[in-house]
């Protein structure tokens, strides 16, 4: 089985999904944000989770789209909260329409995500809904923690990892688990799928933080050092603030409080502080720990090696990515 | 059976419901808005709907709270959109906390509303969810139409009634229907409950519009004429704009476009225009038509007259209210 088959099935389903018609101001933004693209990683995980146990992976398509609709609902509302002008290079919904429309379209998207779950057979529906409710609440909790952290300078490493776990990783775990549940997998396997998705997700987010500083500029795609310039509270910065002392801490705090600076100079100087504190090695170790835990979770899933190959190969791509 | 028993059971359940704990910024606003009170009309309708068919109305308590949580979620988000400073005489969530918290707390409230529905037995869950999804989407559609109408002066009577039906009445219909479904009522009866709730709801909203102009100041509680002062597009104004011609239309448009005026004089003058156009009689007729339709729906519900008495007496109170 080639994952391209899944991607194409998902694209087709997304294009043909009707979210509602009238009034247009409510439903056009949903079509808009869903058409902006993205890697469709979450629904792909759901199909891969189902394929581990069954050839009838098509039974998981509408629930897979539900995950993608939920994800895009969170993007629509997060973009309001972050006052983001662009999403995937296009105007955000609150910019293209207005704030009120972005709030209300997002609300009805969340309802649409629940509606797409009704495709699930009645014997599994309650279980899936309980898992989805928990996950959706956790994603909101993660977003709230992220906002709380913006005004705090004493965020610990553990708090930061908990935040990214809630804000982004639990949804990856749920996406995988969902596929397993629909395919009729045993409870132990679906738990391992969820935990595996969460661990890979945390590793993925920490790698995001790492690449922003230590990525290869030729491969990274974005400007290296963007997080440093913006004082973004990443794993690296939190770790550095925890480890640094004396003049090194003064120097780091100096850069954090400095309002006018040469961007390249700040990136170079803060990276040097990170280097002196071994932040790169510490972060790489944590990333590889989470990836190893995730792969070990996947090992314990009761499916054949042939069935697992697609998920494992996809996971390896996530692990090895450099952009 | 005394409805006070239901009200007290609901209050107790609302007080003991845990929506979540951490982070506090996410969950405190839910406790706050749920504690502001209100008539608890919607969950009461759910319990009354269940009591029509069963003594085990307590099975409907958590789903009834789900309706109240959903209703308060819409209030939290509507208050942001309407920039309302007060809700039930207390600061709105976006005023007491901030906009972002009101968006995100509202989101997690909607998830909580779904979670409370999981109390329903698996054999009825799918049906209830399908009805709730449709209703929730319609409520959003109604709110969007209401916002669209703010900048339109050609809203027809039919469009206005459709808007209030979606924005407020379908939720009353769903609340009643929900009770019936949980109690195991036949499909025809639950449909009549829903339609009855919708018709009474429309009558209720039109009476709101009427009382604002023709209410007894001693009984009304609010300032009579508030809608006229604010140029609010009520059924009466839309009807007047449709019926008026010649100098009467000029006079009405004059008051609508006038930026500086004596409030009492505007109220008196616009009321006089309404009087000349027979708006009061037309509106009263429409209200009594909707109430009659609603009562006729309830007549067709397959339950004993004894069981129906509470719902009918509650409906009569709604019909006869003067504030």
Structural class of chain A: mainly alpha
Name of the level-1 CATH class of the domain at 3-185 in chain A = Mainly Alpha
CATH superfamily of the domain at 3-185 in chain A: Farnesyl Diphosphate Synthase
* Low-pLDDT segments, ≥5 res of chain A: none
Radius of gyration of chain A: 21 Å
CATH architecture of the domain at 3-185 in chain A: Orthogonal Bundle
**Average predicted confidence as pLDDT of chain A:** 96
Order of helices and strands of chain A: HHHHEEHHHHHHHHHHHH
Query: From the structure provided, what is the oligomeric state, counting identical versus distinct chains?
Result: homodimer
Main sheet summary of chain A: 2 strands, antiparallel
Helix content of chain A: over 70%
The rough form of chain A would be described as: globular
Would you count the extended β strands of chain A for me? Answer: 2
How many distinct helices of chain A?
16
Kindly report the spatial arrangement of strands forming the biggest sheet of chain A.
Answer: 1-2
Biggest interface, chains and residues, is:
A-B, 37 and 37 residues
**N-to-C CA distance of chain A:** 26 Å
CATH topology of the domain at 3-185 in chain A: Farnesyl Diphosphate Synthase
Content of β-strand of chain A: under 5%
In short:
Chains A, B: One of its GO terms (biological process) is isoprenoid biosynthetic process. 2 copies of one chain form a homodimer. Chain A is mainly α and 323 residues long.
